[in-house]
Amino acid sequence: MLNLNRISTNSFFKGDIFMDDIINNFFCYLRDEKELSNNTLDSYLRDIEQFNEYIKKYSSLDLLNVNKTIVITYLMYLQKNGMATSTISRKLASLRSFYQYLLNKGIIKEDPTLNLHSPRQDKKMPEILTQKEVDLLLSQPETNSFKGVRDKAMLEVLYATGIRVSELIALDIDDINFEVGYIVLDKDTSNERAVPIGNTALSCLRLYNEEYRYKALKDDEELALFINYHGKRLTRQGFWKIIKYYTSKTNINKRITPHTLRHSFAVHLLQNGADLKSVQEMLGHSDISTTQMYSFATSDKKLREVYKKTHPRA
């Protein structure tokens, strides 16, 4: 194990340059100039030392003379041995930082990690609730108090529109068009969009707005649609607590976050025949490829339905 305290950054060019000295000085650079945490420092050094062990074992070169081919071969070696893509990406990031440091110090002339890309990580499908699970979650608030009516309205709006939590808590009272049935997001910006809202969510909003919201207001000039007991705009953290509370009452064995209802909204629309372009517009995705991940969650269900309808022995 290296003695990370015995070399100072000022001693870098004194006498012969030893590999331990180089790594020690790199450590000092990360600690003193980059101010990285101890855990991150440990990861960087461990990644570099593991790469050093690899090139000692599989090549005749050292850390200062490796080329791009050796780095690529090392990444392939890690992948072949079953290392997670995220871990390989972190190791490459550590090496890239190390060789950029050496290049800037004039110790090497070429960076062997230049233009190397981290392996692509497979996107995990987000947790999705079934329709029954959504109904169960949305039925938890008791609609006989300010809190219950407000919470019910928020959950219903989130699932009915698929908007982000940040968009939900940013809503002002005049962002809701009760007559036509839609909400306006990102008002007065280039990203402004109108999202339709269903009758159930609209009814919950009306009840909240007409009979409960004004009772909690402390300032008539407050524009926030969803407010707390102090009459102020509800915070993101406040809504996290709300959804965590109702989730605990459902006994649904899934990790439910505020974003779960957004994911479920998209998948349920596609499962029931909505086109991808419309879902993209409602979600506010600038690139349809982001929306396409939800189509994978619908494919299994559609295949089963096709099988049942068409196979003679189904």
TrEMBL record:
Residue span(s) of domain Tyr recombinase: 124-308
GO molecular function, one term: DNA binding
Active site (record annotation): R164, H259, R262, H285, Y294
Predominant localisation class: cytoplasm
Listed GO CC annotations: cytoplasm
Protein family membership: Belongs to the 'phage' integrase family. XerD subfamily.
Function comment: Site-specific tyrosine recombinase, which acts by catalyzing the cutting and rejoining of the recombining DNA molecules. The XerC-XerD complex is essential to convert dimers of the bacterial chromosome into monomers to permit their segregation at cell division. It also contributes to the segregational stability of plasmids.
Protein name per the record: Tyrosine recombinase XerC
Organism: Sporanaerobacter acetigenes DSM 13106
Gene: xerC
